[in-house]
Amino acid sequence: MSAARFDRLLADIRACRICVDYLPLGPNPVIQASRTARLIICGQAPGLRVHQTGIPFNDPSGDRLRDWMGLDRATFYDAARISIIPMGFCYPGRDPRGGDMPPRPECAAHWHDRIFAQLPNPRLVLAIGQYAQAYHLAGRTKGSVAATVRAWAEYGPDIIPLPHPSPRNMGWLRRNPWFEAEVVPVLRARVAAYLRDWPSQM
Ligand code: SF4
Predict the structure, then answer these.
(1) Residue 11 class from Cβ within 10 Å (0-12 exposed, 13-18 middle, 19+ buried)?
(2) Start and end of every Uracil-DNA glycosylase-like domain (predicted)?
(3) For residue 157, cis peptide bond before it (omega within 30 degrees of 0)
(4) Is the omega angle on the peptide bond into residue 56 within 30 degrees of 0, that is, cis?
């Protein structure tokens, strides 16, 4: 795909209204992507603050994710080096049971195979939470986010499963101290090596 066609695909995503009837605040697709970024952050869906600002991970979840990755905001938002492609591009609204609704399924079904087919390889995918892990580790998840993240070393050099960095997930982090002791240092080292070597092959 040419650069112009990739730009058109991004423009089509940003103009998307497929599930307008299900989005309480309307469509506002939030995505950061380029054909030069081999590090791809794949989360769940924008929260309210991300919807309001149009900036991915522009919230406390993003602060924790940047800390895990060892990145400042300028590097994190450098689209030439880092793509941010959640499972749902639009804010799905509040879940009456607490937290936000899951990402709209129409999003991955319509867009994800098309955009990931155009991204460079090899790549390093950070698969955050159950929805991103189900898509990027199709058939290879372990039945829970904790079990999948714990098995991170099985997934080879191109994908690292992560828990959601949301403040709502503090209980999970407290119950699973091995994550910050074992996985976060590996994540930081892999990200630092990628940035050091970019734009060459990983
Ligand atoms: S969530 Fe995805 S499919 Fe739905 S309107 Fe937004 S971009 Fe389109």
Answers:
(1) exposed
(2) 30-188
(3) no
(4) no
Question: Which residue's alpha carbon is at the smallest distance from atom 3 of ligand 1?
Answer: 107
Considering only the C-alpha atoms of the chain, give the largest distance between any 2 of them, rounded to a whole number of Å.
47
Residue 162 Cα, ligand 1 centroid: separation in angstroms?
24
Q: Report the pLDDT averaged over residues 130-140.
A: 97
DSSP state letters, 24-76: TT------B--SS--EEEE-S---HHHHHH--TT-SHHHHHHHHHHT--HHHH
pLDDT at 184: 98
pLDDT at position 1 over 70: no
3-197: CATH topology is Uracil-DNA Glycosylase, subunit E (3.40.470)
Domain spans of the chain, in order of start: 3-197
